[in-house]
Design goal:
globular, alpha/beta, single chain, two-stranded antiparallel ribbon, eleven-stranded mixed β-sheet
């Protein structure tokens, strides 16, 4: 079996229906869909069992698990040569598996394929206008290779997330087995997607990166977008863990519970886990505090005024760090270089927009995420036969 599509779910039967449909309607033969139910109390089981499809494997967690442990349980059910996760509020584009298969055949030594994603905003109050996705006007179907270690270092430095996490990548079973053997598991607290990305990049030399193959659902129920606006929702995530004692363990702000502070704490834990070979992984302390200030300001804007105090403390710490960099010649040069780089990128993007004479993205409205994935997939995943060459954008016959 070439692919396993793993869908971990808990109490999201309505959204699960669309994620499951996007997986089962793939124009590809050799795959399975593993739906793992984390002790849901809604109609999740009925939604899954209503699909009489031999490619569907339905499993139930033996007990109510934390999200991290449930992801690990779900991963262990997969039997395919390649494994990809689809969250229950996301959707695969039609043709995604065929596109991934073509890329894997083109690069048989590659064990990790990251695909770009587009965000679908649900109509649940997440934004003023819902049921839309911003789509590039042109999506070239292409595959490029990237250096794993360089990507890991850059994402650590900028506290970034543009890297192959299990939620936006197909991972070869050989790589999964090596990581499980060396580290005991794939997913770790508190940000399991970032933890998996760290391990995947640390244990590969290169990975492939493709055009968009998936829509990520942006909604108030998710622990990402939802917790970025509501600290109570984030606290409900922490309450899943018996080991949580009210604070983080690797951050200078252990009681500041925001999404990005969880990412920072996870990064630090992964650096310890990876050992001496990756001891030079560092997060830029200035960017780290800038991101935390944005987290706090977002909470304040959504009615949680108590975070103003933390924001002011972070602004003071940020000012002190900037002063230290000014008086340190090495840090001052690095800050200047970063600033010039940022300005150059902005100028380059504005130049491109002027040359094109149009915006690079357009807003598209759909009734649900599955319809959006189907419509965009016609442009993003045009693979319909084995002759397609994803590297040169041409068919073998040409």
């Amino acid at each position: 079996m070439q692919f396993s599509i793993v869908i971990p779910t808990r109490n999201r039967a309505t959204k699960l229906r669309h994620a499951l449909r996007s997986a089962l309607t793939q124009a590809f033969d050799d795959f399975e869909v593993v739906v793992s139910n984390n002790q849901s109390c809604d109609e999740t089981e009925q939604v899954v069992l209503s699909q009489s499809d031999p490619r569907l494997l339905y499993v139930k967690a033996p007990r109510s698990m934390s999200m991290v442990d449930h992801w690990e349980f779900a991963l262990n059910q997969a039997r395919g040569e390649w494994v990809l996760f689809v969250c229950d509020d996301d959707a695969l584009m039609p043709g995604a598996l065929a596109f991934l298969a073509a890329a894997a055949n083109k690069h048989p030594r590659i064990e990790l394929i990251q695909y770009s994603v587009l965000n679908f905003v649900y109509d649940d109050g997440t934004a003023l206008i819902g049921n839309y996705v911003d789509v590039p006007k042109k999506i070239p179907p292409c595959v490029r290779l990237a250096d794993s270690k360089r990507t890991l270092h850059e994402n650590f430095r900028r506290l970034g997330g543009d890297m192959p996490k299990f939620l936006n990548a197909a991972v070869n079973a050989r790589l999964i087995a090596r990581i499980n053997q060396q580290y005991g598991r794939m997913f770790w607290d508190w940000a399991p997607d970032y933890a998996s990305a760290s391990l995947l990049l640390a244990n590969t030399r290169q990975f492939a990166h493709t055009s968009p193959l998936m829509l990520w659902g942006d909604n108030l129920e998710s622990y990402g977008a939802g917790s970025a606006r509501n600290p109570a929702h984030l606290m409900s995530f922490f309450q899943q863990f018996e080991t949580f004692q009210g604070e983080l363990s690797h951050t200078p702000y252990p009681r500041l519970l925001t999404v990005q502070n969880c990412v920072y704490d996870t990064y630090c834990r992964m650096r310890e886990l990876l050992g001496a070979d990756f001891a030079d992984l560092q997060v830029d302390p200035i960017r780290y505090r800038q991101i935390l200030i944005e987290d706090c300001q977002r909470f304040v804007a959504n009615g949680h005024a108590s975070y103003e105090v933390q924001a002011r403390q972070l602004e003071q710490d940020l000012a002190n760090l900037r002063w230290q960099r000014l008086v340190n010649p090495i840090w001052a040069w690095q800050s200047l270089s970063d600033g010039v780089g940022d300005v150059s990128k902005q100028l380059w993007k504005s130049t491109l927009r002027r040359l094109k004479g149009t915006k690079t993205r357009n807003r598209m409205h759909f009734a649900n995420i599955c319809e959006a994935a189907a419509a965009i997939g016609e442009r993003a995943c045009p693979v319909t036969d084995a002759d397609y060459d994803p590297i040169s954008h041409k068919s073998a016959a040409a």
